[in-house]
C-alpha cells in the first residue's frame, strides 16, 4: 500500500520523498500533483493522505506551516520592470496602471498565464516558486512589496492522523529516524488550531448522551421525582477531536 502525497505547483517534495524511501522502503510514495483549486478536496475525496498546500487552509483540517513564499511580478522581457536588478523590488502600488492577470484553474493554467505575459497581455503576481516553475526566456520576475507572502503547509484530515502521517510529518520537519513523534512546539501549534467540524459534532452528541444518562430522583414526596444532576456541575466532555 502506497502513502499518497499531493502537492501544488511550485512545491518540490523530492528531498522528502528520498528520505522517506530510505526510512520506509516497504511503503512507496505515490506522488499526486494537484492544482491549487483542488488542493484540499483531494483529502476529502480520499485521493491523498497528506497535501503540501498553499494557504489559507480550511479550519476543518490540520496543518503544520512549513515556510513562507516571496511574491514576485512576472513581466515581459522588454518591460521597464525587467531593467531592475534581480533582487530589486517594486511596490504593488506602482502596478496600478498595469493589467493584472490571474492563473486559471487547470493543469496548464500557470503556463498559459505566463505565456500571456510574454505576449504583452498583462502582468502576473505569483509566489517566486511558481514563477520559477513556469519560467521562460521571454519573461522576467522581480520581487513585489505590498503583497502578503503565501504560506506552504503540510495538511491532513485530523480523523486520518495515522502512524504513516506522523512519520511523514517527522521527515518534513527534519526529525531523525529515532525521533518520529511530534515535538512539543508542533503539538502546541496544532492545539491552537480550531477544532474540526466533525469533532464539534461528536462533542455535541457526547453532551446530549451524557445529559440523558444522568440519574433521576425517585417519586414519593414533594420536590422528589424531578431530574436531578448527579453533582452540582454539568457533565464534562472534552469538546475536542483527536489530537493531530
Task: Briefly characterize the structure.
With about 240 residues, this protein is an alpha/beta fold. The protein has helices at about 15-25, 40-45, 110-120, 130-135, 165-170, 185-190, 195-210, and strands spanning about 5, 30-35, 50-55, 60-70, 70-75, 90, 100, 125, 140-145, 150-155.
Number of helices: 7
Number of strands: 10
Order of helices and strands: EHEHEEEEEHEHEEHHH
State the helical fraction: 25-40%
Oligomer: single chain
Could you explain the architecture of this structure?
With 244 residues, the chain is an alpha/beta fold. Helix 1 links the parallel strand 1 (3-7) and strand 2. It is 27% helix and 21% strand. The strands form 2 sheets. It has a 5-stranded mixed β-sheet with strand order 2-1-3-10-4. The chain has a 5-stranded mixed β-sheet with strand order 6-9-5-8-7. It has helices at residues 14-23, 41-44, 109-118, 128-133, 163-172, 184-192, 197-212; strands at residues 3-7, 29-33, 50-54, 62-69, 71-76, 90-91, 100-101, 123-127, 139-145, 150-156. It has 7 helices and 10 strands. The model is unreliable at 216-244 (pLDDT under 50). The radius of gyration is 25 Å and the shape is elongated.
What labels would you give this structure?
27% helix; 244 residues; five-stranded mixed beta sheet; 7 helices
Question: How are the elements arranged and paired?
Answer:
Blueprint: E1 3-7, H1 14-23, E2 29-33, H2 41-44, E3 50-54, E4 62-69, E5 71-76, E6 90-91, E7 100-101, H3 109-118, E8 123-127, H4 128-133, E9 139-145, E10 150-156, H5 163-172, H6 184-192, H7 197-212
Parallel strand pairs: 1-2, 1-3, 6-9, 7-8
Antiparallel strand pairs: 3-10, 4-10, 5-8, 5-9
Amino acid at each position: 500500500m502506497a502513502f499518497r502525497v499531493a502537492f501544488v505547483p511550485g512545491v518540490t517534495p523530492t528531498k522528502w520523498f528520498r528520505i522517506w524511501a530510505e526510512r520506509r522502503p516497504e511503503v512507496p510514495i505515490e506522488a499526486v500533483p494537484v492544482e491549487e483549486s483542488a488542493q484540499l478536496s483531494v483529502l476529502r475525496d480520499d485521493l491523498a493522505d497528506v497535501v503540501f498546500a498553499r494557504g489559507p487552509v480550511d479550519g476543518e483540517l490540520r496543518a503544520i506551516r512549513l515556510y513562507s513564499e516571496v511574491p514576485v511580478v512576472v513581466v515581459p522581457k522588454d518591460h521597464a520592470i525587467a531593467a531592475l536588478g534581480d533582487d530589486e523590488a517594486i511596490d504593488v502600488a506602482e502596478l496600478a496602471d498595469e493589467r493584472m492577470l490571474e492563473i486559471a484553474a487547470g493543469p496548464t493554467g500557470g503556463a498559459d498565464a505566463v505565456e500571456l505575459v510574454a505576449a504583452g497581455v498583462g502582468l502576473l503576481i505569483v509566489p517566486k516558486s511558481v514563477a520559477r516553475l513556469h519560467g521562460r526566456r521571454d519573461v522576467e520576475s522581480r520581487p513585489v512589496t505590498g503583497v502578503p507572502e503565501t504560506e506552504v503547509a503540510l495538511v491532513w484530515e485530523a480523523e486520518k492522523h495515522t502512524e504513516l502521517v506522523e512519520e511523514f510529518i517527522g521527515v518534513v520537519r527534519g526529525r531523525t529516524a529515532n525521533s518520529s513523534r511530534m515535538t512539543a512546539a508542533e503539538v502546541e501549534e496544532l492545539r491552537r488550531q480550531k477544532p474540526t467540524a466533525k469533532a464539534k459534532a461528536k462533542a455535541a452528541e457526547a453532551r446530549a448522551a451524557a445529559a440523558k444518562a444522568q440519574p433521576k430522583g425517585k417519586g414519593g414526596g414533594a420536590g422528589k421525582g424531578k431530574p436531578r444532576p448527579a453533582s452540582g456541575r454539568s457533565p464534562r466532555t472534552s469538546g475536542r477531536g483527536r489530537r493531530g
